[in-house]
Design goal:
The chain has 157 residues and is mainly alpha-helical. The protein has 2 domains: 45 residues, no CATH class; 91 residues, no CATH class. Helix content is 58%, strand content 4%. The protein is elongated. The N and C termini lie far apart (87 Å). About 6% of the residues have low confidence. Bound molecules: zinc ion. Zinc ion binds next to loops. Pfam families: Zn_Ribbon_1. Keywords: Membrane, Transmembrane, Transmembrane helix. It comes from Halorubrum aquaticum. InterPro entries: Zinc_ribbon_dom.
């Protein structure tokens, strides 16, 4: 019986072994494929368990993307939406940073609220009770109101 060593952990393993007994690394193409299939099945179960009916049509290749696993496929972002999203983050963080540097002024707190309001995760959180995301136009409006009020306080005080 010939012995070889695992390419991953160097443990001596039987030449006919398909998986390393030490670290479980597949030792040939076939075993690697088998492991791959197993992982994909597990991933599918996770997705199925979280309530997203599979409903797969004609025998697909069984590809599981990160989107399937993490359930983000439902929200396909168009280019315009991504632009909105990026803009919201930049504007939100910039506003928060400015507010933090001026935090001794009461107006800064309104700027802070505005910055938080326009950040995309906030839209999602506020949208939870109604089962979706808050309209970005509404959040942008909220942002403008907070910022204008905050700026007004800066001038008044
Ligand atoms: Zn090994």
């Amino acid at each position: 019986m010939r012995m070889k060593s695992c390419p991953r952990c160097e443990a001596p393993i039987d030449d006919s072994a398909r998986f390393c007994s030490q670290c479980g690394a597949p030792q040939n193409e076939e075993a690697a494929e088998e492991l791959d299939q197993y992982v994909k099945r597990q991933a599918k179960q996770v997705v199925g368990g979280s309530g997203g009916g599979s409903g797969a049509g004609g025998g697909g290749s069984g590809d599981v993307t990160a989107a399937d696993v993490f359930g983000v496929a439902a929200e396909e972002l168009t280019e315009r939406e991504q632009l909105w999203r990026r803009g919201s983050y930049v504007l939100g963080y910039a506003t928060i940073v400015v507010a933090l540097t001026q935090i001794t002024n009461p107006g800064a707190w309104l700027l802070l609220l505005g910055g938080i309001a326009i950040l995309p995760p906030t839209r999602r959180l506020l949208g939870l009770p109604v089962g979706g995301t808050f309209k970005r136009e509404a959040m942008a409006g909220l942002y403008v109101v907070f910022v204008v009020l905050g700026a007004a306080l800066f001038f008044v005080l």
